[in-house]
Amino acid sequence: MKFAWILMFGLALSLGCSDDESTGTTGDRPICEFGERYSPITGTCMPISTPQNNTQGGGDPNNDENNQNNPDPNNASNNQTTNPNNPTETNNQTSPNNNEPDMGGDDMDIPDMPPLECGTGGVIGLACTPSGDVLAAADVTITGTDCATGQPFEMVVRTSADGTYEFADVPSGAHNLNISTGSFSGDSGVFVRAGEVTDLSSAVDKVCLDGAAVNIAVVGGAYDAVEDLVTGLNLTYDMKGDDNMDLTAARTFLTNANEMANYDIIFLNCGELYGRLGPLFPFQQDPRPQIVNNLRDFVNNGGSIYASDWAFPWVEMAFGDVLDMLGVEGDGNGSKMGFAPQTVTADVLTTDLQTILGRNTATIAFPHNPPAVVNTNWVVLEGVGPQTVNQIRADVQLCSTPSNCSTAGATQSAAPLLVTWKAPSGGTVVFTSFHNKRQATLNQDMELILRYLIFQL
């Protein structure tokens, strides 16, 4: 009788653990022990832990949980695991059933190594922003060595509207996977087995952009606040003055090309900075020509600029025919003819934005509820330069006269509302006539568009 109870107890334990093991019925995939999971990144069994996105940086070096993923090579306890059958014996394998090479942590570049079986497999996955939201319209690249030829290979696909991507016929083995868009990127390893599909879609395995690797500066403006949107995307930034109380800081930053070069992206909020930086007296030096040259050099050296509405003079002066302003060129005051409030149904002209929105139109609002929200006399474009991409356009109402915007006047047909220009060196300039301040009237279309734009910079 005693023997029967022992037998039943052992059987119950066996059944209780069966749901936590991978059966490993295909290829040479290892059978994982209780408390472990198969990692498609390393191709090995890994301890089950709290999900962490595969991005570089952003961890607290004083946090023990982060240190577990970044072991100190000088600490022997990080490089060893205890053999449960012999407490005094240590080994370097994650699992006693794992006969494959140790490929390191998720954050390490995985070296090329001979796969257990040479062939091809697939990869599916989910790309995400630093905040964990889905990332559409990003490039996903797999690089490695083809096991059949011994030659390097590269494969590139684009993420869909829901952030998913898929590769077919990927050579088996350990490879590197990179997700990139604008100044942002995220890296991971991926292990492909012949005849299988490797899945990087789970909360543990999905690959997110590394926001900490991108340096962002924001110059404040009276009528916009892109920093609110940047914060919502889990990105950090440095404020560099504004067009009002901190005018000196804005001047100091924009006249210092070396300081600007420390950043990848500079946001210029809608405001009156251009006018207020002009000399008050004839004997004062005008800093604006130097700022214009610095902005031009910044973009030509690979940096990106996003200017909204009344920040347009910086784009107009630095980049010539990128914008075709309504009215007289130059300071562009004649183009401040946009009536508000108004909401328009705009044509979406680029494939990426159509994919993100799921249609070829977008609702763009120009709210006006002073003093909290000021949009009257917003800048109207009548066209774009030959190398500029017009992404969104709409028929818009103008003010009745430049000096009277309390009533609507004529209609400007097909006015560009969002334009982008890329320098030959890779830098990007983005301009929007509409604002990006987070407010009740920032509708879903506008938020999706602005989120997309930030990750294109």
TrEMBL record:
InterPro entries: Carb-bd-like_fold, Class_I_gatase-like. It comes from the Bacteria. Residues 16-35, 43-116 are annotated as: Disordered. Residues 64-102 have a biased composition (Low complexity). GO terms for molecular function: carbohydrate binding. This is Carboxypeptidase regulatory-like domain-containing protein. It comes from Microvenator marinus.
